[in-house]
Specification:
Layout: H1 2-22, E1 37-42, E2 57-59, H2 64-67, E3 69-74, E4 76-77, E5 81-82, E6 84-89, E7 95-107, E8 122-127, E9 134-137, E10 144-145, E11 172-173, E12 180-181, E13 187-188, E14 192-193, E15 195-206, E16 211-218, E17 226-238, H3 241-265
Antiparallel strand pairs: 1-17, 2-3, 3-17, 4-5, 6-16, 7-15, 7-17, 8-9, 8-16, 10-11, 12-15, 13-14
Length: 266
């Protein structure tokens, strides 16, 4: 009986996993599949590595055991403008990939209600040469943010004199969906601690042998005002549907055999 239940449970799990792979949400945050193969991981506890375009490491004032070393901080450079950093992994087989990481939002992000200039404080991630996986905005004050929804520039009306009414798309209170808020110890003058951690999670197809993931801040004022960083980056390859299908068929065959044995014994 217990063997029968175990085989049935395996078949059910493989069916669910196969459904995830056959009908993937290309840029959606997704649930990890147990059979994923990790091809890259970095906690930035000791070094960045040449796979990153900028080898900048920061430390958090608090919670050093969890986020002590991280990639960044990044913001707006005085000479070159908005900063971005890329992760390049070579000789990658084509297929589906699952990327997870912690996004650190640091200091005074103004969301979609930017009072200092005409641009919302945004952040993006995506594969070079393709549409972004996500463009969104974050807030660390009384302003609203678009995350966990995307930021749609077509819904941002620069002609509106009221910054609070410029964005007509979905928006949410500051820190919405944050895993942690105001725990890292980054301070802003006159306000106190201002930071947040977001757990990011994406599944996407890859056809090019070179994976170039770009992370970028957009419309930030300066490093003294707002910044961001990355930690606990993991890239995993999702098994091909055919592989899971073979495993599913094998599990179903075992289930059929177990039922046949029970019938003969009965």
């Amino acid at each position: 009986m217990y063997r029968h239940h175990a085989v049935w449970g395996l078949a059910l799990w493989l069916s669910c996993a196969l459904a995830v792979l056959v009908f993937p949400a290309t840029a959606a945050r997704a649930t990890p599949v147990a059979t994923e193969v990790v091809v890259y991981a970095n906690t930035f506890s000791s070094a960045v590595g040449s796979e990153w375009s900028l080898a900048r490491m920061g430390t958090t004032p608090l919670k050093t055991a969890t986020y002590g070393g991280f990639l960044g901080p990044f913001s707006k450079a005085p000479s070159s403008g908005d900063e971005s950093v890329t992760l390049m992994l070579s000789e990658m087989p084509s297929g589906l990939y699952h990327v997870t990481f912690d996004l650190l939002i640091i200091k005074s992000w103004d969301g979609v209600e930017e009072f200092h200039d005409a641009v919302a404080d945004r952040w993006s991630v995506g594969l070079d040469g393709h549409a972004p996986l996500l463009v969104t905005s974050f807030s660390k004050n009384l302003n609203r943010q678009t995350y966990p929804d995307s930021f749609n520039p077509a819904l941002y009306d620069l002609s509106n004199p009221n910054p609070a009414a410029r964005y007509t798309g979905p928006s949410h209170p500051a820190d919405t969906a944050a895993f942690e808020k105001n725990q890292l110890g980054f301070t802003f003058p006159g306000v106190g601690i201002q930071d947040a951690v977001y757990k990011m999670d994406f599944v996407f197809p890859l056809a090019d042998p070179n994976m170039v993931l770009r992370f970028a801040g957009l419309g930030l004022d300066s490093a003294a005002d707002a910044g961001w960083g990355l930690d606990n980056v993991v890239v995993a390859r999702v098994p091909e549907p055919a592989t899971l299908l073979s495993a599913l068929l094998g599990a179903l065959a075992l289930l059929a055999a177990a039922r046949g044995m029970r019938a003969r014994r009965g």
